[in-house]
Amino acid sequence: MTTPIAYLNGKFVPISEASLHVFDLGVVGGMSVTEMARTFRHVPFRLDRHLSRLARSVEYVGFETGLAAAELQGICEHVVSANSELIPAHHDLGMIVFVTASQNLTYLGRHHGLQAKQSTVCAHTFPLPFELWADTYKTGLHLVTVPTRSIPDDVIDPRIKHRSRLHWHLAAREARQVDPAAMAILSNHDGQLTETATGNLCVVDGATIITPAAHVLEGVSREYVAELAASIGIGFVHAAVTSEDLAHADEAFLTSTPHCLLPVTRFNQLPIGTGQPGPIFHKLIEAWSKSVGVDIVGQMKQGAMDRS
Length: 308
Known about the structure:
single chain, alpha+beta, 14 strands, 24% strand
């Protein structure tokens, strides 16, 4: 095999042939739910957790995959195994699964209504773009608050991981107007900070990590950080987090699947703590690296050079 494969609606196909019909509601209306996992040493990390969350999302929105949980996991593992052969041994993959509502009945008409009931299911991978994050482990991320707010819970349940992303595009544009290097951190209508487009926020107060308790996706990476924190004697609590909390934090970081942890060193154009990645961040990324047998920061740096 010389080209990556993908799974699409019952078939394994070359990834170049894994395309959605223009009538698909994932294209027409952004009606899709999704998950992203990653590999360490070419083995999917916590794939079962990601697929369990996908199953909950599918149930919440009422899609039908036609696949049992074990069957979908087997599909994902096969795609990863096949595509891992095409990347260097010291690189890794991102793993995507998504499910769309079906095709648009308005475009199909009554006589093709069956197609409007069949969800699209796709699983594919991509080589992790290490160069996007390699330098950030040293410099840290910049976050800014923006006018765009989080989607209220009574509009879309935050437990649903979905691809309705237009508000994130608007938030990113607003953030760049403040700081071209910044990422948007959203807040709810009560002024509490929620999350970024790519990860969960954690702030450090002394020896305790605080993460927003509500209005956020229940992150698989955040869950793992809580376990790592407990293993090295660091407190981890869910509570309301305000802009003032972040501005006065000792340190802060984001949790997310592809890069695991990234430090946050500036907020609203001012430094957080010393303005450098903090000691708890370093302890956690070291613990995570040890647990998966991969120097995460080292892999990012080497991978970025390899891809340059």
